[in-house]
Design brief:
The complex is a heterodimer of chains A (751) and B (147). Chain A is of the alpha+beta class. Chain A has 4 domains: 2-54 and 443-581, Aldehyde Oxidoreductase, domain 4, CATH 3.30.365.10; 61-143 and 195-245 and 250-283, Aldehyde Oxidoreductase, domain 3; 145-191 and 288-390, Aldehyde oxidase/xanthine dehydrogenase, molybdopterin binding domain (Aldehyde Oxidoreductase, domain 4), CATH 3.30.365; 397-442 and 588-751, Aldehyde oxidase/xanthine dehydrogenase, molybdopterin binding domain (Aldehyde Oxidoreductase, domain 4, 2-Layer Sandwich). Helix content of chain A is 28%, strand content 27%. Chain A is built from 19 helices and 29 strands. In chain B, helix 2 packs across helix 5 (135-143). Chain B has helices at 24-31, 82-90, 99-112, 118-125, 135-143; strands spanning 2-8, 11-18, 50-53, 56-59, 71-73. Classes of the chains: A alpha+beta (751), B alpha+beta (147).
Amino acid sequence: MARLIRTEKEVEGRFEEVWLVVEEDALDQWPAGPQAIVGRDATRKDALERVRGEAKYTADLQLPGMLHAAILRSPHAHARVAKIDLSKALAAPGVHAVVGPGDAKGLEEEPGYAGAAVAAVAADTLAHAQRAVRAIEVEWEELEVVLDPEDAVKRELYTAEPTTYERGDFERALADADVVVEGTYRTSVVLHNSMETHQSVCEWVGDTLNVYISTQYIWGVRSAMAEAFDLPADKVRVVCEYMGGGFGSKNDPGEYTFVGAELARRTGRPVRCALTRREENTAAGNRNATIQKLIVGARSDGTICALGGEFINAVGWTGWSAMTEGPMQMLYACENVRTVRYGAKINTPPMKAFRAPGFVEGTFGLECLIDELAAKLDVDPLELRCKNYASSNDGKPFSSKNLMECYELAQAQWDRRDEVRARSTGTWKHGVGMASQIWFGGGGPPSYAWIRIGSDARAQVVTAMQDIGTGTRTAMAQIAAEELGFPLDKVEVSLGDTSRGPYATLSAGSSTTPSVGPAVRAAAADAKRQLIEIAAQRYHVEERILDIKDGNVVSADGNVNTAVEKLVEVLEDAQILGKGARGPNPTGMSVLTFGIHVVEVAVDVETGEIRVERVYAAHDVGRIINPLGARSQVEGGIIQGIGHTLSEVRLHDPESGRILTTTLDAYRMPTIADVPEIVCAFVDRPDEHLTNLGSKGLGEPPIVPIAAAIANAIRDATGADVHELPISREEMLRALQSAKERERRGAHAAV
Amino acid sequence: MSDLELTVNGHSYDVRGARVGISLAQVLREELGMTGTKIACNEGHCGACTVQIDGVPTLSCITLAHAVEGEVTTIEGLREHPLVDAFVQADAVQCGFCTPGQVVSAAALVAANPTPTVDEIRHHMAGNICRCGTYPRIEEAILHWRD
C-alpha cells in the first residue's frame, strides 16, 4: 500500500524534511553472505561495448545538422559587463546565433570568478564558434576581488549563514582535560577532471526539448531545464546511457546546457555545447579548499572528552558549504563537541560536490589530530580509536555499524608496523598510519523499477537511473536475477532516459545501489509472483510449493522441474510486467558507512619524496552485491585520494584570481606508475534495518580516510606532522624542518 | 582544404576537402565515424585518443591528419584482440572513456613484448590517464592477456 510519510532525506550530507509517498518494503532480506548471484563476482554488463569503444557517450553523438557552441568566459575574477558588442561575432563565418548576458541562464552580466560564462556562439564547427567568440567585444568594469577565505569570513562574506553545533559543555570539558592537542589543517582545491568533459547536445522537436547530456542525474536536469524554459517537465526528455565520469560534478545541467538549449531554440538546429579540458579545469566545479582549526582534549586514560573545530570552506562565488565538521561530530563517542562552519564567498570558481564532499577534508583534519593526540598520550592510535568508539550518533542508534570489525580485520596489517619501520635505510624512512572512515551512503526513497519478461524467458529491468561508471547497471541485473531465480545472462538493464522508465535517484552520495536496488528487487519479486501463478495453473500445483531456481520452475515435491522458457513460451508476444518501489529508511536511526585504511609509506627525508607502498582497506557498507565491482570502487577511490593527497592542486593567481593550472600536465593526477599495492576487505554484513537488501553505497567511502592515513604514516616514518594537502615535496620538507626544530627545542628544554 | 588519404584498420579512405590542420582524432571521429577513439584533453596529455601508426602508440589528437604516412590502427581494428576480453574479465573498466585508448596502448605493448613485467607495463602505460583509477585492473588484464 502506498503510504504518505514525512521523512528526512539526505544527499551528500545535506538533509531536508520532505513529504514522500512510499510503498511498504514487504520482502525479507536474503540471508547474509553470497547468494546464487548476489554477493558473487560479476563482470560488467556493459564492459564489452565500453572496452571496444562502441558505447556512445554524449561526446560521440552527432545529430544531423548539429551546430557547435563555444562560450566566452570572463577573464576577470569580478567584473561587470559595461558594454558588449555581439555583432562582429554574429557576422563571423559559419556563425548562426550569438547570445549574451541575460539571454540564457548562466550567462552573467556580473561574473564573480575568472571563467564565468558571459556569452556564447553557435556555429557550423567548433573552430568557427571559438573564432567568433574571440570577436565578441566587451568593455569590462573591474570590481573588487576577494580571494582569501579568512578575509571573507572576517568581512562576513558568506555563501550561507554560519552553521554552529554544540553538545555537552565543550569549554568546561576542555578545561578539565589532562591533555590538549590543537592544530590548523588546510586542504587545497582539487578538480574532478572526469575524462569526458561536461557537455550536452540539445535539440527541440516540436514542443519537446531533448537533452543528451553527460550527467549523474537525468531527472534533476529535466526539472532544471523545464523550469528554465517554462516547460512542463514531460516536455523535456533527458538521455544519458553512458557517461565518462562525474565524481559529483555533473549533478546539474550547468550553464553549457542552458546555453545550448537556447542556441538550439534560436537556430532550430541541434547544438552541442562541450567544455574544453581547459574550461573543465576552470569552470566545471571543484572540491573547495578548507581551513580547519581543531582542538581535542582527553583524559590521561585516553578518553576523548572535548572536540572543537572552526571550519572554513572556501566555497567560491556560488555553491554550497559541505559538512566538513561531520566526522568530528560523528566518528567518536565524545560527549562535548562544538563546531562552527563558515562558507566563504570568494571570487573563485564555484565548488561542486566531489566524492564525499566535506568528509574527505574533515577526516584529514580530525584523523591527523587524533593521531597527534595518541602520540602525546603515548598510546597506540588504534587502541585510542577503539577506546572512543561511538555506539550512537548524537543519541540516535546506528542502523548498523561494524567499524569494530573493520578495526579487527585491520589488526594484522597494523601489526606490521615494526617490520615496515625496519625497512628504513639511509634517507628513506618507512612507516605505517591509519585513519577511520565515516560517511552517509544509505540512499532513500523515492526510486522505482519496472521489469518485463517475454516468452523467451529473458528479463529486462527498466529504471531511469544512471551508471556513471560505478557498475550499478550490473548490480541491478544481479539483484533482479537473484530474486527471479534467473541466470545473470538472461537479465538486461535499460537505463538513462527520463521518457523511457520510472524515476530513479541521482548517482551521487553513494546512493544508487541502496536506493534503486531495493526497488529492482521488489519489481523482480512482483514478476516472479506472476510467473509462479502461471506455473501453478499450467502444472496444477499449489503456488506455495513452487519456486524458480537457475532458470527452472521447481516444486518442493519434485514433480515440477521445467525451464522457465517452457513455462512462458505460451505467452508469445504477451509480457509479464513487474513493478517495484524503494521503501522508507528506518525511522529514528542513523544510516552510515564505516571503514579503515592502513597505509604504508616511504619518505626520503632528504628530498621530500613520498611513496605510498601499500594500502589496506576494510569497509562496512552492508551487503556487497558484486565483490569484483566493489573492489574496483575501493581501488579507484584510494587512487583518486592518493592524487588529492600527494600531487593534485588547482592553483589560482593570488592577485587576479585567474586559474593557473588548466591543463593535465599542470594538474597532476595519478598514473598507473603511482599505484601502490591495494588490499581490500569487506565486512559484508547486511544492515538488518535497511531495505530488503541491507546494502549501502560504496562510491565515496574509500576516498574518505586515505589522506589522513597517508599523513599519519608519514608521521610514523619521520616524526613530522603534515598539516596541509597536497603533501608536496616542499610541504614535506617544511614539516620535516619544523619537526627537527621542535626536537631541538625539546632537547634544549630538557637540558 | 585538402584531400586526404588514410589507411585505417586495413581499409583505405579518401577524405575530400579535409581542413588543413585537422587532427587525426577529429578525422577518425567526425569524418570516418570511428568514435571509439576518444578526445578527453585534446592537447596530448591524457592518452584517451591513442591510436597506433605502424604499430607505434600515437596521440591522435595532436597528430596532423595530413602528416600521417603509416597505417593507422584504432580500437575499431582491435575489437577481436584478446586484450578486450582480458579487460572485461579483470574489470579494467569503470566509466570506460579512457579504456579504448588503454587497450590500443596495451596492444602495442604486448605486440612488442608478449610477457611484460609489472614495471614494463607501468612504464609503457603511464601516458594513459584513468580518472576512475582502474590501474590495478589494467595491470592485471595485461599480465594475463593470453589466459
